[in-house]
Design goal:
401 residues, 1 helix, five-stranded antiparallel beta sheet, single chain, mainly beta, eleven-stranded antiparallel beta sheet
Length: 401
Amino acid sequence: MRFGFFILFLLCPASFLIAKEHSEFCSMGRLCVIYVQDKTGVDIYFQNKIAIDQTDTTISANATFKNMKSSLKLPMVTVLKGPKSKKLFRLNAIKTKKRWVYQIKYKWILGNFSSSHDSKVIYELPFEKGLKVRIYQGYKGSKSHQGDNRYSIDFGLKEGDLITAARDGLVIDTEEKNNEGGFEMKYIHSANYIKILHDDGTIGQYAHLRYMGVLVKRGQRVVTGAPLGYAGSTGFSDGPHLHFEVYKPTSRLRKKTIPTFFRTESSDSEIVTEGQLHWRRDKEESMVKTVADVDEIQICESIQNLERLGCNVSLFSKTSPLYFYIPLLKPSRYKIQISVRKNGTSLQKLYNWETNPEWWDTYFEAQLEDPSEPLEGDWTAAVSIDGVLQKEIQFQLTSVK
């Protein structure tokens, strides 16, 4: 987030200037205060030097002074339009032959404080189609989504995963030259990011991009789903992910983040929450009705393989346990049932358990034993959740593996 609070202290002795003196001070290489001083006072200008024509910058300006008076009532809140400098006020010396002193104090933030979010807008998930992504931290998350950031979302993207636009808009600011990060406050201003201005005046921010990981430029218009950059872990971050938020400035120069609704694999409009697994779905595609990620329900031959999700096998030893892995789309308390049946026989085993509402996934260890009938052969495992069949898996048991 690019915003700042600065104080500029200046002193002018009597009869110090003969001609106008033009000086400026810039914060973060972006917002500059420009003062043009003469024998009778000083004109105060502000300019956002990296702005494009459509960029609004909200500024709160104030001044303290001696032997001077302001042309306008202070403090004041106003909006800069585009990259041109704007005179906000003048400080006039009361007694020009005596020393006069002034301090300029200001805060700024990108955006227009009078903008209003269009609550009818449905956002697309901000990552490449085909990816399945967990929500690592949702709204009001205890780790870092409090205060001004309370309606932010952390998508669990991996380093280098492609980030896409969640909504149409205009790129108004980017940063990609930072190459460090960590979960320490010293990294709070080290994040790479992209800011996109929406038609309603709100701003979508995509943060923690990798070094040199921005694919768009200021002034570029993007459509929903367009590539923006690559995920990383720069700035105040405890690991690779995408921090996404939609915000507007307030008249107090704070950032007001806004709850947003997304189209997901199972809904046309929902607020995503921590622990959920999601992927992008086009409007014409059918919604998912299952509560598990059926493509990733697997049988594993070891805990180690399960943890790495390297379970792409269908042949198992009859003497070894089977590990059934079930990733859940939305954490909740579910009743899981697995029916394991040897094909063409009456041999069948049932396993039941209940999930914890905080679990993102679940697994079960099953040891098949039956002294009355050989275990070798073809089997079918049926996985059901709350009585609804999720997936059937064919596998084989053998005495030699």
